[in-house]
Amino acid sequence: MIAKSDTVRRNGRGAESSQEQALGKIYSMLDQFKLKYPELKNLIICGFSGGGAALQRGGGRVTEVAHNNGRAARFCHAKTLGPSLLTIQGHQMQILFSPSSIALHTLQSLVAQNLHARAQT
After folding, report:
1. What region does 46 belong to: left with phi over 0, alpha with psi -120 to 50, or beta?
2. Percentage of the chain with pLDDT > 70?
3. How does the average pLDDT of the chain come out, rounded?
4. Helix (H/G/I), strand (E/B), else coil: 48
């Protein structure tokens, strides 16, 4: 696990780039894992984010987390990536406690961004 908000708070904004590079390298090594360990043939790497760009303590925005993970995967020439996951804090609380139309829009955005990011890798 790479704790985004804690690392950025301690090491500054440059830490976010290192975190994205680490995730991209893990995505790109997925095929190597599966070849070396056949029992991991169904392994999926999920970028799990609790911080998103300018919202480090408020949770990642659904429209940027999958995009950032997809960009990291493309940069490292990964063949695929798993779904991007979010912690339930900050903006994600709107899924639980807002009117159904807002919650539905939030979930649709998350799904759309994950599909878009995966299609680009």
Report:
1. beta
2. 67
3. 75
4. strand
Q: Which two tokens stand for residue 117?
A: 């990011």
Number of Cβ within 10 Å of residue 54's Cβ equals: 9
Can you tell me the distance from the alpha carbon of 74 to that of 118, in angstroms, rounded to the nearest whole number? Answer: 10
Q: Cβ-count burial of 83 within 10 angstroms (0-12 exposed, 13-18 middle, 19+ buried)?
A: middle
Q: Which domain range does residue 34 map to?
A: 4-119
Counting the structural domains of the chain, the total is: 1
- Quick one: tokens of 64? 């940027």
Beta bridge partners of 49: 86
User: Angle at Cα 77 formed by Cα 73 and Cα 78, nearest 5°?
Assistant: 55
Measured distance CA(12)–CA(82) in Å, rounded: 27
Given this model, what pLDDT does residue 50 score?
A: 57
Quick one: how far is CA 21 from the chain centroid? 12
Please return the burial class of 99, using the count of CB atoms within 10 Å of its CB with bins 0-12, 13-18 and 19+: exposed
Cβ pair 19, 2 in contact under 8 A: yes
